[in-house]
Fold this sequence. Notes:
- A hairpin with a 4-residue loop joins strand 1 (14-20) and strand 2 (25-31).
- This protein has 2 helices and 5 strands, in the order αββαβββ.
- It is α+β, with helices and mostly antiparallel strands.
- A 5-stranded mixed beta sheet has the order 2-1-5-3-4, with helices on one face.
- Helix content is 21%, strand content 31%.
Amino acid sequence: MEKLRRLSLNWVKFEILVHVPEESQMFSVTVRPTDTIKDLRVKLVKQGISSWKKHFSYNGRELGEYETIIDLNIKRGAVILLNKSSR
């Protein structure tokens, strides 16, 4: 049953917003619940938005590259920050 639920999540798509404070811009990105933060990074690059050497944060927490949208409990219309990396 869990496998069936995971497979059905591949069909669901929704939009989230990525805010880049340094550029004062907001971008809309279509994601699936099973997408990882790395997948999100690739989608931004395809839109011409450089996200390398930057980190994503949501609800005050830095996100790991291999965490999924569903595991992070990110919902439709959520805003994720893309900040310069402090490393």
